[in-house]
Amino acid sequence: MAGRFAQRPTPATARGGHVVVPPGVPRPAPAPGRRRTWTPPGPLDLGLVLGPLRRGPGDPTFRATPDGSVWRTARTPTGPGTLRVALRAGTAAAEAWGPGAEWLLEQLPEMLGASDDPDAFRPRHRLLALACHRRPGLRLTRTGLVLESLIPSVLEQKVTTDEAYRAWRLLIRKFGEPAPGPAPERMWVIPAPRTWALIPSWEWHRAGVDDKRASTILRAVRVAARLEQSMTMEPAEAQARLEVVPGIGPWTSAETVQRSHGAADSVTVGDLHLPGIVGHALAGDRNADDAAMLSLLEPYAGQRHRAARLILLSGAVPPRRAPRMRRGDIGRL
User: Fold this and answer.
1) Which of 74, 50, 76 is nearest to 64 (CA)?
2) pLDDT at 166 > cutoff 80
3) What ranges does the record give for the region Disordered, renumbered to this chain (predicted)?
4) How many domains does the chain have?
5) Helices first, then strands: H and E counts in the chain
6) For the chain, which terminal residue's Cβ has fewer other Cβ atoms within 10 angstroms, N or C?
7) Residue 328: what pLDDT?
């Protein structure tokens, strides 16, 4: 695997890896982290590849900075870590901090789509061919982490994205831990499974999370180790394992493995909008249901999720006729 590591000394740190500076003393320059470079085999667009990991513009675990860098935090098998990635002349340059730094750098090629094969996709529709041409840097990420994609996917069940993003922000900031290293602004690491399990019922309520979704997350974190072991499985098998947990169905499992496993064929079924978008784009049928969507995507078997991503990126969305999903706020009940 191409790449190089350079370990640097780290100063004494406090909670979350932040340097403790007494009042009135100038803050020292951030300590350099461990580094690695990786050259992708083809075009790479960081925004397209890593964008699905971002849960809203205020996601405390994800930042995109004006210099083109992408920052993300993760709770890895070796502990919390912060990763910064930037493209330099076609090469991905990464730096990482915290106990999970080395794991994040080892995972860097997979996270940037090394195991993905864009050339396996053969567009059979003009819209998809055009989308491929316009988005040559699209590769499917594979994070190697299940829980960090599963929990926000559960939060997004049956609510508006704004509500789900708000709940994610509030819970991460209150129960997560500060990101190690010199992260931009204030970033946080997703809580450990035990921390999720100890969140009081009223805190879920304050975040706008109903009992059904909260209970699903609590059941999932109790078997977190078993769910993370699904990384050794094919995506379809991993989905089946996730769906053993009550409250996790095909929609949630697909949304999870698309990110954790880089699953090119895992279609999101049960979505309120996706069937109509796919139907409108490929057949002019904005009223398509899941069955019709799967039929239209059948020629792309093995790459159906990529086909759906390209359709969404094409902007070929039917004009809205139905009212938006009503926004709820259980915190005010």
Assistant:
1) 50
2) yes
3) 1-44
4) 1
5) 14, 7
6) C
7) 54
